[in-house]
Amino acid sequence: MMPARRSTTMLANLVTWGLVLLISFPLIWMVVTSVRPQTELFQIPPTVIPRAITFEHYIKLLQETPFLRYFMNSMILATSTTIVVIVVGTLGAYSLVRFSYRGRETLAALVLFTYLLPSVVLIIPLYLMMVKLGLANTLTSLVIAYTTFALPYALWLLRSFMAGVPEDLESAALVDGASRIGAFIDVILPQALPGIISTALFTFILAWNEYLYALVMVNSDQARPLTTGVMNMLITSFNIEWSLLMAASVMMSIPLIIIFAFLQSYLTRGFGAGGVKG
To answer: Are residues 154 and 169 in the same domain?
Structure first.
């Protein structure tokens, strides 16, 4: 029995690593292409391991293109959207869980229905609204736009996390003299922290990778985020700068990799906590 079990385990490990390698291959090819000399980009037959490694594409990207400006725009945009969504979503989810008022369940259902709507149907109304408010071609307009479709999902997700916090803990804090806001900060937020971090990570990735709204609502080169800025800079009707495009893709992936590395434990706990109902 032991040899058979050991063989099964070894086979399962081989299959798992094979799938990981298969899924990771596009990322590996992206990194390899970004450090491959220009002369080797279109060689036949292609090789996975380059004959030489160069960082000239990264140097050219950072020194000769507005990549850093786009990078900063995306960082400001994703961070601002995440803060707005988490603050409003946390307070809204707490209201839906802890307070009783007429239409509460209807409001929760409408929030979910809003998330189910295709985000593309809101582009024209939001664009016209930003023009009327004088916010067109600004990062502020994108923060507002991203909030419209990130907040409903965040609110629904945070509602389940808030429902998983025992109400007795908050009641005990209120009996001990804490205010409603004090109990919310000292009791509810620490208990719901894994869920809040998971939701913040989802919102950040959504804002970091969003393309359609940024393409329609921002035409100014000063306010372009990475998604549209890199496309406008490196992809034209006549040419694609593949080496710079791969280098830019690697650079765009670094913040997300760092965030996942530091918040992985919270993310795992958040996914587990989200299924708990109070």
So the answer is: yes
DSSP state letter for 131: H
Give the pair of three-digit tokens for residue 155: 């609110």
Q: Is residue 14 part of a domain?
A: yes
At 262, list the tokens: 């530091």
| Phi and psi angles of residue 263, each rounded to the nearest 5 degrees, phi first | -110, 15
Structural domain harbouring 34: 2-54
Cβ-contact 78, 214 below 8 angstroms: no
Cis check for the bond before 118: say yes or no (omega within 30 of 0): no
Partnered with residue 158 across adjacent β-strands are none
Q: Return the structure tokens found at 251.
A: 């650079």
Which region holds residue 274: left if phi is over 0, alpha if psi is between -120 and 50, else beta? alpha
pLDDT winner (highest mean) among 95-99, 143-147, 170-174, 240-244: 143-147
Higher pLDDT, 277 or 86: 86
pLDDT tens profile 93-120: 888 888 777 877 787 778 777 777 787 8
The dihedral through the CA atoms of 172, 174, 178, 184 has a sign that is positive
For residues 69 and 15, membership in a common domain is answered with: no
DSSP secondary structure code for residue 251 in this structure: H
Residues 35 and 112 in one domain: no
| 102 vs 194: CA distance, rounded Å | 30
230 in the same domain as 143: yes
CA pseudo-torsion sign 91, 93, 96, 98: negative
Report whether 88 contacts 201 (CB < 8 A): no
Q: Is position 151 within any domain?
A: yes
